[in-house]
Specification:
Distance between the termini: 46 Å
Oligomer: single chain
Largest sheet: 5 strands, parallel
Order of helices and strands: EHEHHEHEHEHH
Number of helices: 7
Strand order of the largest sheet: 2-1-3-4-5
Structural class: alpha/beta
Shape: globular
Number of strands: 5
Radius of gyration: 17 Å
Helix content: 40-55%
Strand content: 5-15%
Length: 206
């Protein structure tokens, strides 16, 4: 099994990476292969709603989004980590996620999702809420820990000193591994939930 971890920070080895690494250690200890991809320091433009991806199966802008899409399709779970900017996620990360989730033609049902946020002091829960919406719109179960998946600090050393936050990351990794394995077993024994033949789209209320 595989888990893809997205580092939305511009700092390759900063606080967000430190938190994601704690999650990855637990996933790997459970026998799940992990990969951390940093997107926060890349030149990524936002979606322009051209809908070309619906014709070609990939985004019209051939950048990191198209590179990561096959990894997303192959993964059984995804962890999205972001620093807090003005009580919200990094703008580069949002541009990346909007295009990845919209353009990737893979079936995301029952892939396990988890969000991780990092801040010096505040804004983590607002950021956490934004990231989780990518999962709930995609029929993706969300892995949780014993508290919101937040760490606090200004440096990686601060994050390690946040004993509660570090423990939350470790428990998140264990819970996510359990959920991924349980869903794989459920797919094998009972199959995926039935879906309607046609997905209804309502653009206005009569």
């Amino acid at each position: 099994m595989k888990a893809l971890l997205i580092n939305g920070s511009p700092h390759t080895n900063g606080c967000t990476y430190t938190a994601l690494s704690e999650v990855a250690k637990e996933l790997e200890a459970a026998g799940i292969e992990t990969e951390i991809v940093t997107v926060g320091n890349k030149d990524i433009r936002g979606c322009i709603s051209c809908r070309k991806c619906k014709e070609t199966g990939k985004c019209v802008f051939n950048d990191l989004v198209n590179e990561v899409a096959p990894k997303f399709a192959e993964a059984d779970g995804i962890v999205i980590g972001s620093p807090v900017y003005f009580a919200g996620p990094n703008g580069n990360l949002i541009s990346f996620l909007d295009r990845l989730f919209y353009s990737c033609p893979c079936d995301r049902r029952m892939k396990v999702g988890a969000a991780v946020t990092s801040a010096r002091r505040a804004g983590t829960t607002a950021t956490f809420d934004v990231l989780n919406k990518y999962f709930t719109i995609s029929e993706m179960p969300i892995a949780s820990s014993r508290y919101w998946n937040n760490v606090h600090g200004y440096t990686p050393e601060d994050v390690h000193a946040d004993e509660e936050g570090t423990q939350v990351m470790q428990m998140l990794g264990r819970n996510m591994a359990f959920l991924m394995k349980s869903i794989a077993l459920g797919k094998e024994q009972i199959g995926l939930p039935e879906r309607p033949e046609k997905i209804q789209m309502t653009n206005f209320i009569r």
